[in-house]
Amino acid sequence: MSFGDPNNPYGPPPQQPPAAQYGYPQTPPGVPPQVPGYPQQAAYPGYPTANALQQTMPGLVTTARVLLYIVAGAQVLIGIFALLGAATLNDASNASEDTFGDNAFSDIGHDGAGIVLVIALLFLGLAALSITLGVKFSRGGQGIRVTTMVYGILGALFGVLILIGAAGASSSAALVWALMWIGFGGVMAAAMIAPSGSAWFNRPRY
Predict the structure, then answer these.
(1) What single DSSP character describes residue 32?
(2) Per-residue pLDDT reduced to its tens digit, 148-170
(3) pTM of the entire structure?
(4) Helix crossing, 195-202 with 59-100: angle to 10°?
(5) Radius of gyration of the chain (CA)
(6) CA-to-CA separations, 195 to 145, 177, 180, 198, in angstroms, rounded
(7) Are 48 and 110 in contact (CB under 8 A)?
(8) What pLDDT is attached to residue 204?
(9) How far is CA 205 from CA 10, 97, 185, 202, in A?
(10) Cβ distance 89 to 114 under 8 Å?
(11) Is residue 54 within 8 Å of residue 203, measured between CB atoms?
């Protein structure tokens, strides 16, 4: 009797493959094992994760925000001085009217006080707009971006007009004032036009 014959009914039973461990299915060679109950999912290309989203304000946008606050401070000072000037002109006109009666000087003084008052209110309103835009940079959308861009362009154009007047009057103070407005307005507009500024105001908000 030979146990080497595979057809021998009295031979040893054939070798069985080892049973798989309970709860861990066998995986082919070269495939990493998977944890039971947590199937592996393929990543979806083209969709950045939450960590990849832009959550830090770009440097150029931050600079534009700081310039808005600086411009707001200058506008507040101009508005306050203009209010004081309007009040002074009005007082002088009233004193002239009390001393000399109704005359041309008092009428001109009252008109001038009214014009200066309008200028003061205009600058105070622009200061409020500058502060509002700067505050809204954190959560604002395309409306804030477009408004800031237009605001910067108009500020730069205002600086060009002052520059033309300064060249005609040969005024160094007006020249510095004009260059400041051109620089500030240009930086604000450029920050909103730049791709980094557009991406910041287009970012998803949760």
Answers:
(1) P
(2) 999 999 999 999 998 888 887 77
(3) 0.67
(4) 90
(5) 38
(6) 12, 29, 25, 5
(7) no
(8) 81
(9) 77, 62, 28, 9
(10) no
(11) yes
